[in-house]
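U., I forgot to send this yesterday:
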Amino acid sequence: MAIGLSGLCVVHCVATAVLLGMLSAAGGLLGSPLIHEVGLTFAMLVGSFALGRGILEHGFMMPSAVGSLGLGVMAGALSLPHDGTEATFTVIGVGILALGHQLNRIAGE
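Result:
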């Protein structure tokens, strides 16, 4: 589920960049800082729960450390300018978070 949510975040970031280029009205809505802040809060809650549960279930901390790095990159991206830099770093953070979830899944097998 967490990997799927990370994928949805990537779709949102890419769709926002495309829509900003095509439709400024739609881009203004999708590019709203409020959407990014709410999305990041949701990602941190779900990510923390899933990665923390993994530590408790299999005692392996590497997935949580990688996932936390991804969440940190995503959080840091909120402070970057909206010139494509924010979306780039958010996608990088989502990829790192997804890697943490994948490592968590593998460790649980």
